[in-house]
Amino acid sequence: MNQLFATLDTTSRKLFIEEGVECVISDTVGFIKALPTTLIEAFKST
What we know:
Layout: E1 5-18, E2 21-32, H1 37-44
Antiparallel strand pairs: 1-2
C-alpha cells in the first residue's frame, strides 16, 4: 500500500451534554510515513 497516512484504529463515543443534546466524538490513531517536507507546515497549522 502506498499511503502517506493510514488510520490504524478509530474510536467513537456518544456524549450526552444535557437532556435532548448529544454528540459523537471520534478519535483516530494514525501513522505517518515518509511525509514530504512541503506538508510539514500544513500540519503545524492544525
